[in-house]
Amino acid sequence: MRLADVVKIYSPNTTSRNYMTDMDGLKCVHYGDIYRNYTDREIASSNILNFISLKFPEHKVIRQNAIIVADVSETLDDWGHVTFIKFDGTPFINGTHTFAIVSDCATTLRYLFYYLRDDINIKKLRQFLTGVTVFQMSIKSLSNFKLELPPLPTQTRIAEILSAYDDAIENNNRRIALLEKAARELYREWFVRFRFPGYKKVKFVNGLPEGWEIKPLGKNVSVGRGSSPRPITDARYFSNGNIPWIKIADATKSTKFILETKEYVNDFGASFSRKLPIGTMIIAASGTLGFPMFLGVEGCIHDGWIYFYDINDISVEYLYFVLLSMGQYYNNISYGAAIQNINTDIIRKSKIIIPSQNILKQFTTIASNIDGGIKNLLLESKNLTHQRDLLLPRLMSGKLEV
C-alpha cells in the first residue's frame, strides 16, 4: 500500500525561529528537537519545548498522537530521524522541515513508528531523497512510498513487544530524573541555603559557615583542555578507529554519564587528542557551554572540552554540582562571535565554596550512592536498547514470528 493510503501526512509548516516565543502559544515541534530527543524517541506533547506565536488554521493543529519525521539532513546516512509525540491534551503543530504522520488507528500508527526505525526501511526511503549539500524528502515521495502491512493482530503484537522495551527504558529515564533532582536539591539545600546537618549550631562569619572558605577553583583542581587532530575531516585519524571520540552531541544525548559515542578515532588520531580514563569529569567549553559530564568510557576529547584532574580537598561529586550551578555564569562571560567559548583560565579563576571536610564527606557519600543508581539504570537501558534494536528488524521482516 501507499503510505498516504494508510495514514494522513501533514506537510511542514513554515515556522522560523524568529516566531518562537517563551510566552503561551501553540506548541511547535521543530526538526532540531527531533535530533536532540533522538535517544528518547518519544515526547509528550506538553513537553515540547517550543511555543509558536503565529496562529494556524484549525486543520493544521494536531490533537492526537503523531509520528514526526525530520525531512532534511546534511548527510545521506543521517536522514531518518523520527519521534513519537504522545498527545496529552496539549495541541501542537509540526514546524519547518518536519512531516507529521497521524492515523485514527492507534495500532497502525504505533507499528509504523517502529517500521520507520528499521534501518532497512529507512534505506528504502533514502532512495527518494533529493539534494547535494542538504538531503530532503518531498511530501509526494513520502506519500507514494510503498510498504507491506501485516494483518492488524500482527501489527498489534509487534508493537506490544517493542513497546515493552521502550516502556522499560522510559521508566528508567523517569527514575534517573528523580534521582538527579534529589541530588540537585540536596546540593542547593546544603551549599546554597546552608541548611546542612547541624547548621543551627554553626556560627556564620561574613555569610559563610565558620571554617568554610571561598577559593579560586584552580587552587584545588587541575584543569586541562582537550585536543583535536587537524584537519578534523582527515580520514587517517578515524579509519578503523576503536577509541571513543567524545563530541558535544554524544553528551547532549546522554544523562550525566557518557557511555557510548557515535564516532571513534584510531591510535594515530588519539596521539593528537587527549585520551582520558573512565570517571573523568569534563565540561563543554565551546558551543553549548557549561554542562559537566562524567566519562563512562575511556576515550578522547576534542578541544571543545575542558577536563579536571588532581582534585584536592573537595570531591568530584561536589565539584560536579558546583560547575552545574555555574553554567549560566559561564554563558554570560563567554567570548566569541559565532561560537561562544570559555577557556581554562576562566575555569581556574572561578570562585567556589570549600565546605568543611565533615559536611563534604557526608554529601559525597550520598551523591556517590545516587550516581551509582543512575549509572546502573543507564547501563540497564543501554542493554534494553540493544535487545530492542536486535529484535526490531527481525520482527519487521517476519524472520521472527510473533
> Which strand order does the major sheet show?
1-10-6-8-4
Q: What form results from the Cα inertia axes? A: globular
Euclidean distance between termini CA atoms: 22 Å
Low confidence ranges? none
User: Could you tell me the radius of gyration in angstroms?
Assistant: 24 Å
Secondary-structure-based class equals: alpha+beta
Number of strands: 24
> What is the share of helical residues?
25-40%
CATH topology of the largest domain: Adenine-n6-DNA-methyltransferase TaqI, Chain A, domain 2
Task: Figure out the total of helices.
Answer: 12
The largest pleated sheet is described as: 5 strands, mixed
Task: Tell me what portion of residues adopts beta-strand conformation.
Answer: 15-25%
The chain-level mean pLDDT equals 89
CATH class of the largest domain: Alpha Beta
The CATH homology group name of the largest domain:
DNA methylase specificity domains
- Number of structural units classed as domains: 2
CATH architectural grouping of the largest domain: Alpha-Beta Complex
Report on the structure:
The chain has 402 residues and is α+β, with helices and mostly antiparallel strands. It is 37% helix and 20% strand. The protein contains 12 helices and 24 strands. The strands form 7 sheets. It has a 5-stranded mixed beta sheet. The protein has a 5-stranded mixed beta sheet with strand order 15-23-20-21-17. A 4-stranded mixed beta sheet has the order 2-5-3-9. A hairpin with a 2-residue loop joins β12 and β13 (208-209). α6 (152-191) packs antiparallel against α12 (357-397). The longest helix has 41 residues, at 357-397. The protein starts with a helix and ends in a 5-residue tail after the last helix. The relative contact order is 0.11. The mean pLDDT is 89.
